[in-house]
Amino acid sequence: MSKVHSDPRSPDVLVIGGGNAALSAAITAREAGASVTIVEAAPKPYRGGNSRHTRNFRCMHDGPLGVLTGEYTEDEYYQDLLKVTGGNTDPVLARLAIRSSEESYRWMEAHGVRFQPSLSGTLSLGRTNAFFLGGGKSLVNAYYRTAAGLGVDVIYEAKVFHLELKEHRVDWVDYTQGGETRRITPKAVIVASGGFQGDTEWLARAWGPAAQNFLIRGTPYNRGVVLADLLEQGVRSVGDPTQCHAVAIDGRAPKFDGGIVTRLDCVPFSIVVNKNAERFYDEGEEVWPKRYAIWGRLVAAQPDQVGYVIIDSKSLELFMPSVFPPIKADSIEELAGEFGLPADKLRKTIDAFNAACGDTSAFHPTELDGVATSGVAPPKTNWARPINEPPFYGYSLRTGVTFTYLGLKVDELAQCSTDAGSVRNLWAAGETMAGSILGQGYLAGFGMTIGTVFGRIAGREAAAYAS
Known about the structure:
CATH architecture of the largest domain: 3-Layer(bba) Sandwich
Structural class: alpha/beta
Oligomer: single chain
Helix content: 25-40%
Shape: elongated
């Protein structure tokens, strides 16, 4: 090990990470009177972790709230969560996140975040999700401006690799910066450094060789180093390493950092086939914000971890435009050739699907319409219209991992523990503890809810401990 240089800073609260959860924690702790230092692994232009790629925040409200319309009650929100997780959640922590989201909306506005009405083509999210004006990058920048105004210290390109645990507390934290190893001794520590999805070798240990074909939608800096270090020292874990927020994204996306724009919203109006030109799941199972996150896992289970979306011209304007234009062809056979699919097999699959479509007069693109197939497997239970109007369009699909669910187990105060009891000065927030609530599946905008709520709790508790 290289020589360890002592960092002269000795903040009350050290926040590890630089995204939404970390910033929510840092601002809250600073406003409570604590001195706060953030250590962010990324360079300044890439600060913010996955939060800079986000679009919206899922929020409970009993009546109209800001840009949100109508009401979205605690019980409805919780039932939506149960649907996507299959009940694999901690009900106490889940309801805490949900109940706290309404007040968090106001807190976010008070700290520089601006919202806008939901975008067209987002399938009725205006009631449940508040969209960030300028996207996640604007949210991150607003929080950094607020933090700077409060006197929060930020160290960039600081890669934490070890927290020294002794007798139920963290004694010191080691990080590297500029080729040197530095040691800092805070009174309290908040871990908000994300999952391990940036480490493809760790993904492969969990998933097997298929993970080598996954794309990582977010930051390459979330490599799980702090998570692994704490788990090795006996800090309690939660979640399954094979569970993650994984969506089907454009197969042309980059390996890392493609972000939200690589997502494809066309699946409900399509058929999806694998490399053998076979359909493998019901494309119309549920409205897209509730079910889109299952498609990453579905594609991961297909040969070569790839799928293909096929639509026709009448569906092209029904979903949010893609960042890369779709592949266009005048015939199904020509489209098959563009993707290297067996043309005769794709024609047979589409003919069988078309024949199974019935009356489409009730078709409604933004709600469950019951326009279903009959006599084909798998069925399509909504939005089932024949694919028969040229030109035809298609996209390749790959599994895009956003964040992993293996993380640090926390209680209602966001505090970490070992089998011997609480770690007195260690808290966690955001993706690094989201597996406490998300056992599987995902609900659009809920990651930002978890990060904001538990970041604020962790900041409050850490500041109180430090004082």
